[in-house]
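This part of the workshop introduces the protein records we will be handling. An example says more than a description, so a record of this kind follows:
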Amino acid sequence: MRQHRINTLKQGEHYTAKELDSFVSTTDVVLLSSNASQLFSDPEREYKVVHEVEGFFEHSSNDGEKYFRDKRAYVVEKV
């Protein structure tokens, strides 16, 4: 069995919600889930990393500008 503390996510791999929770808590990333707000509700539920990007654009409602965020983001879906 894999340890719960992981340092990186790999596209195509499966991870438990517990592992993802640990990863997000210790790494500066964005995690997008097809499971909405229930991502961490079941620690043993598995998710597959389906996509990874190096950064993303974000719109600011304060000044109306779009800013590029140089932050890794992962898309995960329930298995």
Notes: The CA atoms of residues 6 and 23 lie 6 Å apart. The radius of gyration is 14 Å. Strands lie at 14-16, 30-33, 46-53, 56-59, 66-69, 73-78. Helices lie at 17-26.
